[in-house]
């Protein structure tokens, strides 16, 4: 690996850049100037469906950013997913009795 552009001059075996970082955005973790990819959490559980029947409804799940990308690190992936739900669940029909016949 090499140091991120504009951050430092040399890469040492210990994973640190030899020169102090030139770019203030790179000054973190004791002068570690390498690219850092975005880090996200695991997905949360799916939400309840927005409808109980006669869908499709929508359910969502989310995850959080744990570490923002730095330098030329990979951008964060999507943080929310949506899926259809209860598409094949018919709503119950209320039974209404008629008048008594003769």
TrEMBL record:
Keywords, sorted A to Z: Disulfide bond, Glycoprotein, Membrane, Repeat, Signal, Transmembrane, Transmembrane helix
Superkingdom: Eukaryota
Keyword Cytoplasm among UniProt keywords: no
Entry's Gene Ontology cellular component terms: endomembrane system
Coiled coil (UniProt feature): none
Spondin-like TSP1 domain sequence ranges: 38-88
SMART domains, A to Z: TSP1
Primary location class: membrane
Keyword presence, Repeat: yes
Membrane topology: Single-pass type I membrane protein
Protein name per its UniProtKB record: LNR domain-containing protein
InterPro entries with a match to the protein in the record: Notch-like_dom_sf, Notch_dom, SBSPO, TSP1_rpt, TSP1_rpt_sf, TSP1_spondin_dom
Protein location: Endomembrane system
Domain (LNR) ranges: 2-33
């Amino acid at each position: 690996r090499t140091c991120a552009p504009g951050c430092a001059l040399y890469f040492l075996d210990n994973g640190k850049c030899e020169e102090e970082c030139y770019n203030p955005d790179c000054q973190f973790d004791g002068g570690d100037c390498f690219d850092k990819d975005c880090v996200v959490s695991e997905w949360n559980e799916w939400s309840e469906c927005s409808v109980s029947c006669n869908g499709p409804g929508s359910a969502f799940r989310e995850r959080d950013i744990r570490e923002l990308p730095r330098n030329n690190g990979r951008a964060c992936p999507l943080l929310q997913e949506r899926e259809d739900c209860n598409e094949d669940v018919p709503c119950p029909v209320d039974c209404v009795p008629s008048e008594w016949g003769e």
